[in-house]
Write a structure and sequence with these properties.
Helix content: 55-70%
Shape: rod-shaped
Order of helices and strands: HEEHHHHHHHHHHHHHHHHHHEEE
CATH class of one domain: Mainly Alpha
Strand content: under 5%
Distance between the termini: 92 Å
CATH topology of one domain: Serine Threonine Protein Phosphatase 5, Tetratricopeptide repeat
Largest sheet: 3 strands, antiparallel
Structural class: mainly alpha
């Protein structure tokens, strides 16, 4: 403020100084034009000159205003139109959120008229059409978005959701791949693509998607390793079905390196190695995994590969395998089974006694029934043990952790709920009680060795 006042004072002093100077140094300006001579004091001539300059400047400004006013007015009208368009766009989005299709469509159309950029209104128009149930219109808008720069991902997402809703998995998979190429770090998209690939049994493609998800930290390293191993087992099974035995073995070998306790991988690998005349290596695979996750199927395959007809030698084989994990329940059970087949009742009783104390189950009670019957011919005692078996905890099986489905066979995807990598070898949480038909006295006791289901 002080600087402004000082400026005006300085200007005033300058003009006063000029006036004083002209007063002390008077003069005239003579103008001769067509014989007419006009003498004018110099001060008046200067004032007239200033007035002429000011008038010319004013006329020039007026001319510029008249020249640019249409553009200015047009810009003003465009701004007002854009403001109304954004207002309609906002109201339309609110209507969509409120579930009012009529209001949403009305505001979408108004926004479309007001806004020059169609990409701003396409999403609203598509959502409004979906809300009203007009799938064809929604599809048209989403398709237009999918070819509009900057809107491709939104358009593909809308089309993907529509394909999933109508159950068109082929189209959904194609759209998911296109969207994934644009944004591979999007969590929901990576999951959707992975699930669709699993549904189509595209194991190799699913593995590639999983690896990318691990790379982008959408899936943690431990989960990624376990799931990759499961996918490799499925890939190996497909390779085997196509006659590519060596490729299947390599895949199973990689799977076991990632997850050394994956029983299905070990079972398949041992079986294929034996098929390829690599008996010793096949047996080694079974012995190695017995250290981590013993199952009945591993023992059954172990004995099958040995093909030993002598029952006493089969006991030695059972003891050899059990030695890899001697205190495990399965190790005691396989020794008891082999001992009963060889009529080594004392050895069988010793293992079963420990099992009755530490891990009683239907299998243990069934083995006890076989023991008392074959050793002493005690049919009554055998019936009592069999009755206890019907009320005991179920034998271990592959249990889906998502839906609880129980199966004796393993697969990467649950056949009941389609969840992936959800099966674990465990005792089912709710044992199913088997009811013996008829009075206990009428139950026929089977004298053949008890057969146990295999887990694959």
């Amino acid at each position: 403020m002080f600087a402004g006042i000082l400026k005006y004072i300085v200007l005033l002093l300058i003009f006063v100084g000029i006036g004083i100077w002209f007063a002390e140094n008077p003069g005239q300006v003579s103008i001769e034009w067509q014989g007419l001579i006009i003498d004018v004091p110099i001060v008046l001539a200067l004032v007239a000159t200033v007035i002429v300059i000011a008038v010319c400047a004013g006329l020039y400004r007026l001319w510029r205003f008249l020249r640019t006013s249409p553009r200015i007015l047009g810009h003003y009208r465009a701004e007002k139109r854009t403001h109304k368009g954004y207002d309609s766009l906002t109201k339309g989005l609110v209507a969509v959120a409120a579930g009012e299709p009529g209001e949403a469509i009305k505001h979408a159309r108004k926004a479309q008229e007001m806004l020059e950029d169609p990409s701003l209104t396409m999403l609203l128009s598509a959502q409004a059409a979906q809300l009203e149930g007009d799938d064809k219109a929604a599809t048209r808008f989403f398709e237009e978005m999918s070819t509009t720069k900057g809107m491709e991902f939104l358009g593909l997402r809308g089309l993907l959701n529509q394909a999933v809703s109508r159950g068109d998995t082929d189209e959904a998979l194609s759209l998911a791949k296109q969207a994934y190429r644009l944004k591979p770090q999007t969590q929901w998209l990576a999951t959707s693509l992975f699930d669709l690939q699993l549904e189509k049994s595209q194991w190799a493609e699913a593995e590639a998607t999983l690896e990318t998800s691990v790379k982008h930290k959408l899936v943690d390293q431990a989960t990624g390793k376990r799931q990759k191993a499961a996918l490799m087992v499925e890939r190996a099974r497909r390779a085997e079905s196509e006659g590519q035995i060596d490729a299947a073995i390599r895949l199973l070998e990689q799977a076991l390196k990632l997850e050394n306790a994956l029983v299905p991988a070990a079972l398949d690998m041992a079986r294929l190695l034996a098929k390829s005349n690599k008996q010793r290596k096949a047996l080694s695979v079974i012995e190695d995994i017995w250290k981590y996750n013993p199952t009945p199927a591993l023992y059954d395959l172990f004995q099958k590969l040995h093909s030993e007809p002598d029952a006493l030698k089969r006991v030695k084989l059972a003891e050899k395998l059990a030695g890899q994990n001697r205190k495990h329940v399965e190790s005691r059970i396989i020794i008891a089974r082999a001992a009963l087949e060889a009529d080594l009742w004392g050895e069988a009783r010793g293992e079963l006694k420990i099992l009755l104390e530490e891990a009683p189950s239907a299998r243990v009670y069934a083995l006890m029934a076989q023991l008392v019957e074959t050793e002493n011919g005690d049919l009554t005692g055998a019936r009592q043990w069999l009755q206890r078996a019907t009320q005991a905890a179920s034998d271990p099986a592959w249990v889906c952790q998502s839906c609880g489905d129980v199966s004796l066979t393993w697969s990467a995807v649950c056949s009941k709920c389609d969840s992936f990598d959800s099966k674990e070898w465990q005792t089912p949480p709710q044992a199913v009680t088997q009811v013996l038909e008829g009075p206990l006295e009428e139950v026929e006791v089977v004298t053949d060795p008890v057969k146990f289901p295999s887990a694959t």
